[in-house]
Amino acid sequence: MPETKVRLATLDPVWDRLCDEAREAVRQEPRLGGLIHGGILHHGSFQGALAYRFALKLASGEMSEQILREVADEAHAADRELAQAARADLVAVYERDPACHRFLEPLMFFKGFQALQCYRVAHWLWQQGRVDLAYFVQMRVSEVFGVDIHPAARVGRGIMIDHAHSIVIGETAVVGDNVSMLHSVTLGGTGKSDGDRHPKIADGVLLGAGASVLGNISVGHCSRVAAGSVVLADVPPCTTVAGVPARVVGEAGCAQPSAMMDQLLKPAV
User: Fold this and answer.
1) Are residues 3 and 10 in contact, defined by beta-carbon separation less than 8 angstroms?
2) Residue ranges of the Serine acetyltransferase N-terminal domain (predicted)?
């Protein structure tokens, strides 16, 4: 490979910015030096920092940090998409969450981002047929972060989960790219039937706090589900639904609801 291509292949602006922010954070608050060095600066790559966080947060008396680190390192070595998706998630949080001012914050402090990256390792394990270990990761993520994502669920990249408390995503759910959701969102089933029984959330959707989307239904791209709504039927693209049960109350209000994060219902003109 030519030298120029080698240099380009090693560029990682997300990781470079994380390290710069970490050094500045240590300068401003030296008492956090051990925490931030352990979480970021002691690692040679973004993948290493993600694997360390995975192991540190999920370790317990049942499974050691060392074993979990080996699992995460193996997953990231085998599938570069894990870190690519994490980069997109990190940027999504930074761009959409007004409480996020640095790349450092989701990686070190925001449980929505951290829980999502742990899910991604669990999903990789599930795809490898390592079902019991995937279930163990799901269990620990639920215990540690209060986020319960089945390892078989399919979740795209560029996901922002704000606050993240009490998020539930079922086994056959599908979440597209660039989706934003707030706390207490449920993507669940409607009974005991097996098979494909969970929602399909298209790209660019905004799911408000406490929204429940139930059953094998579709939420069309760039739509909004208002806070507290219970969605039991398909949602057309580029619309806003609200209520219990939810009904269409208007258009989405903008081209990219998940990016704009505008959750107000505008009166009809």
Assistant:
1) no
2) 14-118
Domain 12-146 class, CATH top level: mainly alpha
Torsional class of 242: left (φ above 0), alpha (ψ -120 to 50), beta (otherwise): beta
pTM flag (> 0.85): yes
131 to each of 51, 125, 268, how far by Cα in Å? 19, 7, 49
Half-sphere exposure of 215 (CA within 13 A, CB side): 8
Q: In whole angstroms, give the CA distance from residue 42 to residue 151.
A: 29
| pLDDT tens digits for range 103-141 | 999 999 999 999 999 999 999 999 999 999 999 999 999
Across the beta sheet with 160-161, the strand order is 160-161, 180-181, 206-207, 224-225, 239-242, 247-251
Return the C-alpha torsion angle 105, 107, 112, 114, nearest 10.
Answer: -160
Pairing type for strands 174-175 and 200-201 reads parallel
**Is 153-268 assigned to CATH 2.130.10.10?**
no
